[in-house]
Amino acid sequence: MVHRDPPRKGGERFGRYDILLELGRGGMAELYLGRRSGVGGFEKLVAIKRILPHLAEDPQFRELFLNEARIAAQLSHPNVCQVHELDEADGELFLAMEYLEGVSWDALIAAAPRGEIAMRLAAAVIAQTSEGLHYAHTLHDATGHPTPIVHRDVSPSNLFITIDGVCKVLDFGIAKMATGGRAGPKTRTGVLKGKLPYMAPEQIKGEAVDGRTDLFALGVCLWEALTGERLYDRDTDFLIWKAITEDPVPSVNARVQRYPAAIDAVIARALAKDPAQRYATVREFAAELTRIVYPMSDAEVAGLVRSLCADRLARRQREVATVVSESRAASLELRAMTGADVDRDVDRDAGATTNLRGGAERESSAASTIGAARRACPRRSRPRARGPRPRRPR
Ligand SMILES: Nc1ncnc2c1ncn2[C@@H]1O[C@H](COP(=O)(O)OP(=O)(O)OP(=O)(O)O)[C@@H](O)[C@H]1O
Ligand SMILES: [Mg+2]
Fold this sequence. Notes:
Blueprint: E1 13-14, E2 17-25, E3 29-37, E4 43-51, H1 53-56, H2 59-72, E5 83-89, E6 92-98, E7 102-104, H3 105-111, H4 116-137, E8 159-162, E9 167-169, H5 175-178, H6 183-187, H7 201-204, H8 211-227, H9 237-246, H10 262-270, H11 282-292, H12 298-308, H13 310-338, E10 354-355, E11 359-360, H14 365-376
Bound molecules: adenosine-5'-triphosphate (ATP) and magnesium ion.
């Protein structure tokens, strides 16, 4: 039987982070809002992605995850969610990445009216995310050696739009091991259920993938954003597989004529079954789309996110504000009780850890002081441990 650890609670420590709030969960991981503190009141909020234990325990998955995440941590682009580090705490793998305020594209698609607004919004999202994807597809290492990364899991839930109207690609580096590098076997485990409808034919057949595989997925996202429907919504994985590999792509104007006819040709080329028939790059695809559709500016996208998703954003803002101020108050209380600078940026509880960015970190004398202070103030009586339980996103 698969062992599953209970979800983390607000107020718990995880590696060098304080867990403040559960943000959500997907097929492979749980996401938390975390806080890292440092000297002089330094504080950084991060999103912590904890890989589900039953996956992290699979040695093949682990190895692929570590390899890919090592590369993903090197990615640095305004349209890619920044991974700060990959680490292990309490025997669990996790990623710490930038915390984003905003909504995923699927939430925005659901809220936006179809027609002109959906079209100009989609053009903006495609243009921005294509830049992030193109950067990864054409990545080089420090010696100039090409190290292209294919995302492999582009979908509306992995494209995020911030309240400033900036689009970010999420979950780079997680996708590869999700498909085991070869899409076939792992898709049948159910890990990827729900993502099959965005996979290009070569990916579901387990053939070689490249940037054009992500382009196909982006084409599906565009079709869905314009129609508000699922393109490859079928009852079984087999029927999805068959539709992706055999069925022609229906016109986005099939139900109601709302879009320029030229959009169908752009989508059809992005969704060509043979990668050689697609655009050569995601950037080329975006350029062609934005020749036909005038994309929204960042400010327009920001305005739309803030107005269409006002309730959801306000709720999240309130939750975050509450847990952050409670956690600050708890830190101050603890500092007053122990007289120690408990928020020094050192690994206090776990001792030395190894991470992919910084390598081994030794416990400093300051850490020992804090460790001693913490030992003098046992976990149960620590104010920090009284932090709020994570609230599930509604
Ligand atoms: N860095 C981040 N900052 C803020 N919210 C995020 C961040 N990364 C992901 N999220 C949100 O957290 C939730 C869970 O994300 P997660 O990637 O685990 O699941 P998913 O994308 O819904 O499914 P999956 O990736 O397994 O297909 C989603 O609503 C996502 O938009
Ligand atoms: Mg995701």
